[in-house]
Amino acid sequence: MEMRKPIAVSEAIQRVIDRVQPLGSEKIALAEAYGRILAEPIIAKHDVPPFDKSPYDGFAIRSEDSLGASGENRIAFTVIDHIGAGQLAKRSLAKSEAIRIMTGAPIPDNADAVVMLEQTVETETGFTLRKPFIANENISAQGEDAKKGEELIQSGTFIHPGTIALLATFGYAEVIVAKKPIVGILSTGTELLDVQEELVPGKIRNSNGPMIAAQLARMGLDSKSYGMLADDLDACTATVKQALRETDVLITTGGVSVGDFDYLPAIYERLGADVLFNKVAMRPGSVTTVALADKQFLFGLSGNPSACFTGFELFARPVLLKMMESEKVYLPYAKAVLGEDFKKANPFTRFIRAIYESTPAGATVRPAGFNKSGAVSSIARGNAIIVLPGGTRGYETGTEVDVLLLCMEEGDATWVL
Ligand SMILES: Nc1nc2c(c(=O)[nH]1)N[C@H]1C(S)=C(S)[C@@H](COP(=O)(O)OP(=O)(O)OC[C@H]3O[C@@H](n4cnc5c(N)ncnc54)[C@H](O)[C@@H]3O)O[C@H]1N2
Ligand code: MOO
Ligand SMILES: [Mg+2]
């Protein structure tokens, strides 16, 4: 039997990241762009706002006409026009004239200040003022938000609702985004039953396949399921070959260790694939294997659910994001204080499914329960992963630890209540 040599997690990540080839880009409608990755920078096509505008409902005046106004010396203005947002003033101002103007309307030609409605007292022909205004007071200046030609968002950025707003501002009816990889999922294991099947002795339901599909969905990626296969070298090889013709990346689960029915190593050999590593100094997921068949990635994730989950987040996720030339391929990171003792020592880096909570007193994190490699309950309870460097010691309550954040879609009432 071959002895596998474990490599450090950072080395393993580096090895996969170094081999990623970008997938290229495509043009899509703005309405389809949420959740994609920009393959072009957003450059301001014009100033924002594109004209000086009123930030208030009130009156546009020439500031010089308000000079000397006070409670004892109210200055009167005559209103000569009336505009709302989307309308242009038909006249310009002469001395002591004003134009009634609403929020968002363009500042009339020679006006240079806006008086809020609340700052005026109405008269027959207009209003009076009790304070002087200075030039540019209450004016949203053209270009104050963005200047024409400025690079506002760089290529490789995730498109979120704010990005969509900016794209719409500049009239991007279509956007150039990274192509999405087509990702295949194959669950291997003679013991596997489909979700709707009844349990029978010795068998378990396939939870890894649906879990990986959801991990991809959380990234905005679709998947192509190759279902479940019994541990059979020829059948598995045939399906892996088919998947390689039909997908950009194939994720398998199970069969990567050293058991008699663990056939993935033999499949990589048959394919002549370049195995980047097959042992990582991490728990769970030490047997995670990544290979390249020509230029296609084969992620051989462990069958153990917690190991499978962790292997996806640590290796597949950044590779898929880098294929889309994302600028941020790694999981969000935070520091938090351990909320309970974690006594178990291990020479390998540990990735512990955990519950992260941001409290008014600071962030805390604690293991999400039963945490062996085969655990499924803690993946469900967890919203984060604690990273504990390898070593011989355990960790005590109150120690500050590294945390990788998942479930960014979940809310928190702390701030509101
Ligand atoms: N002698 C050794 N034995 C094992 C080693 C080792 O180094 N030497 N490594 C252990 C570690 S660590 C892990 S992790 C597992 C990895 O096993 P495989 O990746 O080969 O996966 P399988 O053997 O196929 O299954 C492991 C476990 O997971 C269950 N499983 C498999 N597929 C699914 C699925 N789709 N959904 C839910 N659960 C699944 C399977 O029934 C097994 O219980 O090997 C250790 N052994
Ligand atoms: O690969 Mo195993 O999950 O380290 O326990
Ligand atoms: Mg095995």
From TrEMBL:
Coiled coil: none annotated. SMART domains: MoCF_biosynth. It comes from the Bacteria. It catalyses: adenylyl-molybdopterin + molybdate = Mo-molybdopterin + AMP + H(+). CDD domains: MoeA. One of its GO terms (biological process) is Mo-molybdopterin cofactor biosynthetic process. GO terms for molecular function: metal ion binding; molybdopterin molybdotransferase activity. Catalyzes the insertion of molybdate into adenylated molybdopterin with the concomitant release of AMP. This is Molybdopterin molybdenumtransferase. It comes from Filibacter tadaridae. The lineage of its organism: Bacteria, Bacillati, Bacillota, Bacilli, Bacillales.
